[in-house]
Design goal:
The protein is mainly α and about 400 residues long. It contains 14 helices and no strands. The longest helix has about 35 residues.
């Protein structure tokens, strides 16, 4: 009996070992997640970083609408890009909401974290900028095709947006100042992102007031001027720290170097806002303004805006040229990651600033340059989108 019992036990042990071996060799082993393991756990990876993609897509749609020399179908192409942006933004919002629903603790961590290695809170600004660009495209593409109801909608959404981003800028920088001791050696252009939503408020206001009655246009115009002023002054402080960081430490590693284009955006969008607000001053200034009709002051104000924008434009281009050289020096070391969207959004701002220059000086040469920049931006968007989608498909996104 003992022999037969031992034989049975040996047989059972051999069968269990065989079963374990088969399990380890099967596609659904512990070394590879089961099909059901994908999905909910992967929502943890949807961070505020992803909204840099909607920033870039929305800014491209704005450029396509405003570029000076249009061919048949260009506005339609802009509408298609805008629709893609809306779909992209909606998907990211749903995935982010699911991420917070599944991992509630990440809600606080995504907007506040005391560790310097965790940079996600900076990218909350990307969500705000994406929203601003959607509002701009609604006004550019939507109002001519709809009716007065969208004019009022844009007005209401503008004030909601401004209240939210102003509150976010105050609270976020207060949190960063109080809870973190930053090392300038670790500074990246992402430190500029919390103020970015205010930096695009001026250009958004200039677009929205074009369709508003004067009673509602004037407060929006004044708000755009003040918001742009706050954004620009905070940017000047950050520019000083960024210059010190570049002088006293190494530039970012080659894979992350495209993020240096972020420094182009604040100046470029400020130039765009100043000149666009100047051109719409006749509709934005109160009536009367300093005891005179607004039209008289608007002409003088536009001259000042053009000169100021011209004064700043080359500064934005300098950042663009400097970053381009630094990126090109180690171009072979670039690997697809979310910083690649920096090739698009900040340079879209430079394109929009150049478009305003072409309008102000009525220069065919500058307008042709704008067309070249628009084409390069569109091709760049296609390349970056394809590269990042391919990297996601292969699981190699940095």
């Amino acid at each position: 009996m003992r022999g037969s019992t031992a034989s049975v036990e040996d047989g059972d042990l051999t069968e269990r070992r065989t079963s374990i071996r088969r399990t380890s060799e099967s596609p659904e082993s512990n070394n590879e997640p089961k099909r059901s393991d994908y999905g909910f756990h992967s929502f943890r990876d949807f961070t505020w970083h992803q909204f840099t993609g909607t920033m870039s897509t929305g800014s491209l749609a704005v450029v396509l609408f405003q570029t000076p020399y249009k061919f048949p179908g260009l506005v339609t192409a802009g509408k298609v890009i805008f629709i893609i942006d809306l779909v992209f933004f909606a998907i990211l919002c749903v995935c982010t909401a699911l991420r917070f629903y599944i991992h509630p603790k990440l809600i606080v961590k995504s907007v506040y974290d005391s560790h310097q290695s965790h940079d996600e809170p900076f990218y909350l600004g990307a969500f705000g900028v994406s929203t601003a660009l959607i509002l701009q495209n609604m006004s550019l593409y939507g109002i001519p095709a709809t009716g007065p109801w969208l004019v009022k909608t844009c007005e209401v959404l503008f004030w909601i947006y401004f209240a939210c981003v102003l509150l976010a800028a105050v609270l976020q920088y207060q949190t960063l100042f109080v809870t973190r001791n930053f090392d300038l050696d670790s500074m990246t252009p992402a430190w500029l992102l919390p103020i970015y939503p205010l930096l695009v408020t001026g250009s958004m206001a200039a677009i929205i007031v074009q369709h508003q009655p004067h009673a509602s246009a004037s407060p929006i115009w004044i708000c755009g001027v003040t918001a742009q002023g706050l954004g620009w002054m905070v940017t000047i402080l950050m520019y000083g720290m960024w210059a010190i960081r570049l002088l006293t430490s190494e530039v970012p590693a080659p894979p992350m170097r495209p993020s240096m284009y972020v420094a182009v955006g604040p100046t470029a969008y400020t130039v765009t806002a100043i000149m666009a607000l100047g051109s719409s001053a006749s509709k934005g200034l109160p009536d009367p303004f300093l005891g005179e009709p607004p039209q008289a002051a608007a002409r003088t104000l536009y001259v000042v805006a053009v000169v100021t924008g011209t004064f700043l434009w080359l500064f934005a281009f300098w950042f663009f040229a400097l970053t381009t050289v630094l990126v090109a020096l180690h171009g072979k070391q670039l690997t697809p990651n979310y910083t690649w969207w920096s090739f698009i959004f900040p340079n879209a701002g430079l394109t929009l600033a150049t478009i305003q220059m072409g309008k102000a000086y009525d220069s065919p040469a500058v307008n042709y340059l704008c067309s070249v920049m628009t084409a390069a931006l569109f091709l760049g968007w296609l390349f970056v989108s394809a590269s990042l989608l391919n990297a996601v498909r292969k699981g190699r996104l940095g």
